[in-house]
Guanylate kinase
Amino acid sequence: MAAEARPRLTVLSGPSGVGKSTVVAHMRKVHPEVWLSVSATTRKPRPGEKHGVQYFFVSDDEFDKLIANGELLEWAEFAGNRYGTPRGAVVERLEAGEPVLLEIELQGARQVKESMADSRLVFLAPPSWEELVRRLTGRGTESPEVIARRLDAAKVELAAESEFDTTLVNTSVEDVARELLTLMHVV
Ligand SMILES: Nc1ncnc2c1ncn2[C@@H]1O[C@H](COP(=O)(O)OP(=O)(O)OP(=O)(O)O)[C@@H](O)[C@H]1O
Ligand SMILES: Nc1nc2c(ncn2[C@@H]2O[C@H](COP(=O)(O)O)[C@@H](O)[C@H]2O)c(=O)[nH]1
């Protein structure tokens, strides 16, 4: 494929707990030049999460303003919180000809495909439903109520796999990270 025809924006999506952040962290450990968009969210930080690193943690009013000012490339409500991709940084990277990676849920992935037809949507699937439940529960970051909401959303996300350009099964973090790096033409 000619370089100019390569999709430069890659969306990594998949059910909560499947391992998206873990895979991206591994990719960036091996290839620190991989750029990941930092989303805005109304979710409260988990222990250890820092403003501007994992997310821009904002209030509901601030999120409303981001929407009203057209500052989000896409946004969605997920399991009781809102999440969105700041448009400016993504556009800047794309205009500089640099690859862009988004780690977002299904509704946002659909919006990106709609507005940027040459984006590549990658679905990260769990080896099994039982393993997904084990990972989400084992992470220990959400209450049982939130886990239940996320697992409800996971059923919808798993049913939408065919909308994606590529599916990778997260059995091995290292293998999936390598496959993604290849898809993004980093290696
Ligand atoms: N291949 C794997 N094998 C075993 N455990 C894994 C694997 N990948 C990730 N995990 C574990 O699964 C848990 C969830 O991973 P992670 O937080 O990366 O998921 P996520 O898809 O980013 O979730 P969310 O969408 O809720 O942010 C973590 O405890 C992580 O260590
Ligand atoms: N549509 C969007 N989804 C996003 C964005 N940033 C993250 N996410 C997704 O939200 C869920 C929950 O994330 P968590 O950090 O609370 O576990 C997960 O699927 C993320 O991929 C975004 O900007 N837009």
Notes: The radius of gyration is 16 Å. Residues 16, 20, 39, 43, 74-76, 78, 83-85, 103-105, 107-108 surround LQESDW3C (ligand 2) (CB under 6 Å). The chain has a mean pLDDT of 95.
